[in-house]
Design a protein that fits this description.
InterPro entries: RNA_pol_sigma-70-like (IPR039425), RNA_pol_sigma-70_dom (IPR014284), RNA_pol_sigma70_r2 (IPR007627), RNA_pol_sigma70_r4_t2 (IPR013249), RNA_pol_sigma_r2 (IPR013325), RNA_pol_sigma_r3/r4-like (IPR013324), WH-like_DNA-bd_sf (IPR036388). The protein contains nine helices and no strands. Helix 1 crosses helix 2, helix 7 packs across helix 9 and helix 8 crosses helix 9. It starts with 7 loop residues before the first helix and ends with a helix.
């Protein structure tokens, strides 16, 4: 693999200036890592290519609203965005296929994959700790909405509160999680 011309930070700065070439370079740089991380959700190479294309289009369309300068670990950021995208897509279709640990162990695992797994585990630990720091009702509202896919109105009904309260709690949870997890990016 050839050495990149720009650093991740330089690429992010160029992307913030609407530079499509920089965006393509960034995705080319992390394409393999991203594809490997998506193997957890599908073994179909065409599905993975489609997801990556949709993710890249979504990120390009949202580049103006993303806080690119605050991203510390671009690779981890892209992988997390991809994971969240795939989880949302697959939960809509209810077709999520997790690969067992045995299947993962049988796959060829390169050194950088081990690093990715370690970073991912650290992020999961940080996420769990950040969730634990949320007030109980806020955590419950967030969990029901994000982890169980319930709508705000369903969450409000289940918790015996108003939709506006649920919206405020989830917004508060997202802000708190973002602040606590910023060091991972």
């Amino acid at each position: 693999m050839k050495k990149p011309i720009y650093t991740d930070k330089e690429l992010l700065e160029l992307i913030a200036q609407d530079n499509k070439d920089a965006f393509q370079e960034l995705f080319h740089l992390y394409y393999e890592s991203l594809a490997r991380s998506l193997l957890r959700y599908s073994r179909d190479p065409e599905q993975i290519k489609d997801w990556i294309q949709e993710i890249s289009l979504k990120l390009w369309d949202q580049r103006a609203t993303l806080h690119l300068a605050g991203i510390k670990n671009v690779k981890a950021y892209i992988i997390i965005v991809a994971r969240n995208f795939v989880l949302r897509e697959t939960s809509k279709k209810k077709q999520i296929k997790f690969i067992s640990r045995d299947e993962l162990n049988e796959a060829d695992i390169a050194d950088n994959q081990l690093e990715e797994k370690f970073a991912h585990l650290e992020l999961i630990k940080g996420y769990a700790a950040a969730l634990a720091n949320l007030p109980p009702r806020t955590r419950d509202a967030f969990y029901l909405n994000r982890e169980h896919g319930m709508t705000y109105s369903k969450v409000a009904e289940k918790m015996g509160t108003s939709v506006k309260t649920v919206e405020a709690q989830i917004s508060s949870a997202i802000s708190s999680l973002r602040r606590q997890l910023i060091s991972f990016f």
